[in-house]
Amino acid sequence: MKRNTMLALVVVLGGLPALAHAQDCEEGATTAAQVRNCLSGKDDALLDKAYAETLRRARTQDATLAPKLSLAQASWLKFAQDSCEYTVASSTLQTNSNDARLMCMQTFIQARIRVLNGYQRALEQER
Known about the structure:
Order of helices and strands: HHHH
InterPro entries: LprI-like_N (IPR009739)
Domain Lysozyme inhibitor LprI-like N-terminal: 25-116
Number of domains: 1
Distance between the termini: 49 Å
Radius of gyration: 16 Å
Helix content: over 70%
Signal peptide: 1-22
Shape: elongated
Number of helices: 4
Oligomer: single chain
Number of strands: 0
Largest sheet: none
CATH topology: Substrate Binding Domain Of Dnak, Chain:A, Domain 2
Protein name: Lysozyme inhibitor LprI-like N-terminal domain-containing protein
CATH architecture: Up-down Bundle
Keywords: Signal
């Protein structure tokens, strides 16, 4: 996929933060697979950071919250993966399946980070 097409899809589906990641990941990459792996790694790192902080705050607030958050995170991940597999299978976009999967997971991850950040704010208010 041409660089401009990949950037356009990232902007449309992922917004400006995704564009910054895409530009970072394209530097030094020689294949689309390398760009996808880089983008996926950056998204995973942001999600892991938000989840770890939310889990830490949940444990601090009430020890019974942490297992519930862990279960919710595992359920969310399964839902996101299954949803993206459906998206790939039913996609009419002129993208390959790896690009469609990446864009789908980016959308889910960005939404999940917003949810986790909301949980953090709620835990702060309950202190």
